[in-house]
């Protein structure tokens, strides 16, 4: 009986140390697994996609140049090139319309993610509040499919396509 008591303390300490080591290793494995990395990529891509889609549906007609810069900052690749190419025409149309737009994403989901290639696809429902310089504001609802690419500056839109009602 005395021998059991003498060894019980060190045995319990040893078992506790083994349990703690196993728990630490399991925690480290879970945090460094491909599934955890994929989940992190998914969260970042979805969050960026929502922000970028809202940005491309927003414009303050009193601050057109800042709005156009915001559009360029939200995009990369072919979409960025198109926005840059069309910026003078866009600026003129916005100034003539004298209407501000504020887009907010009401729902979004990632439909594809390739973490290795750094590409993703997002679908989103957007509510756009249009405020003319004179007159009453109105609300439009639109749906989009967007392509994203991971860049050194984070996820950015490479495409933005309106989805007609009843599609998909």
From TrEMBL:
> Which UniProt keywords are present, listed alphabetically?
Membrane
Q: Keyword Membrane: yes or no?
A: yes
Q: SUPFAM superfamilies per the record? A: NTF2-like
Report the InterPro entries cross-referenced here.
NTF2-like_dom_sf
**Localisation per UniProt entry:** Membrane
State the GO CC annotations.
membrane
Its name, as the record gives it, is SnoaL-like domain-containing protein
């Amino acid at each position: 009986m005395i021998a059991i008591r003498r060894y019980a303390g060190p045995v319990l300490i040893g078992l506790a140390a083994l349990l703690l080591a196993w728990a630490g290793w399991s925690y480290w494995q879970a945090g460094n697994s491909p599934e955890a990395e994929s989940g992190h990529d998914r969260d970042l891509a979805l969050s960026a996609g929502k922000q970028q889609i809202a940005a491309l549906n927003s414009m303050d007609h009193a601050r057109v140049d800042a709005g156009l810069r915001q559009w360029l900052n939200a995009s990369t690749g072919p979409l960025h090139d198109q926005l840059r190419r069309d910026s003078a025409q866009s600026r003129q149309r916005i100034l003539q319309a004298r209407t501000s737009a504020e887009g907010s994403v009401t729902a979004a989901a990632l439909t594809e993610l390739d973490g290795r290639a750094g590409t993703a696809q997002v679908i989103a429902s957007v509510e756009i509040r249009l405020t003319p310089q004179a007159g009453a504001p109105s609300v439009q609802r639109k749906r989009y499919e967007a392509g994203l690419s991971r860049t050194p500056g984070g996820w950015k839109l490479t495409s933005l396509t309106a989805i007609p009602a009843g599609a998909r």
